Amino acid sequence: MGFLFFGFIAAAESAVASEAGGEHHAPSITLFLLNCVNFAIYAFLLHRFAWPPIATYLRDRRAGVVAALEAARKAQAEAEAIKAQYQEKLRTLESDAARMRAEVLAIAEVEARNLLEQARHAADRVRNDARLVAEQEVTRARRVLQEESAALVARVAGELIAKQLTAQDQARFIADFVAQAREAGAREVGQG
Question: How far is Cα 54 from Cα 46, in angstroms, rounded to an integer?
């Protein structure tokens, strides 16, 4: 609207200038006042209708830029912190690896000692069990040999006695046996 008014004034001014016959005169006060009124209307319209959305946009834009800068600053600080952490980890990585190797070797040595000790105990148990079994087998073999020897001696003695024993010897053995049996019976009766 202000442009239309300004255009109308400019057209009127040019018409007045052409009537003057091409003379160049100083601008008139009317034209100046009309220009001032036109600018005031233009400024009022800008202030009334265009400035609030522009101001809102600029405030929103400024808040967005400030928020983006703050987010970028935070992200940069976080990135720096993470970078510092990783650099610290890289510095301590070799020492951590050496420490872990030493721990694993210590654990392996302890396990090896434990396994060797268990193997020694198992070998001792097997050795003791084998010794006990061997002793039992020797004892059983001795008993079998003694039984067989006793049986053999008794058989040989029986054969010898049977060859050399006379009827008188048999009667005397029976009489001695009966006498001993009577004495044993009498002792039992006397004690009871």
Answer: 10
Query: What is the value of pTM for the model shown?
Result: 0.32
Closest residue by Cα to residue 28 from 42, 8, 14: 14
Exposed e or buried b per residue across 60-70, where buried means at least 16 C-beta atoms within 10 angstroms of its C-beta: eeeeeeeeeee
Q: Which residue has the tokens 């059983």?
A: 140
Calpha distance 48→56 (Å, rounded): 13
- DSSP-derived 3-state class of residue 3: helix
Residues 79, 35 contacting (CB under 8 angstroms): no
Residues 34/8, Cβ–Cβ less than 8 Å? no
> For 40-60, how does the pLDDT look when each residue is reduced to its tens digit (9 = 90+)?
999 999 999 999 999 999 999
Distance of CA 76 to the CA centre of its chain: 31
3-state helix, strand, coil in the chain (%, to 5): 95, 0, 5
Domain boundaries, the chain: 2-163
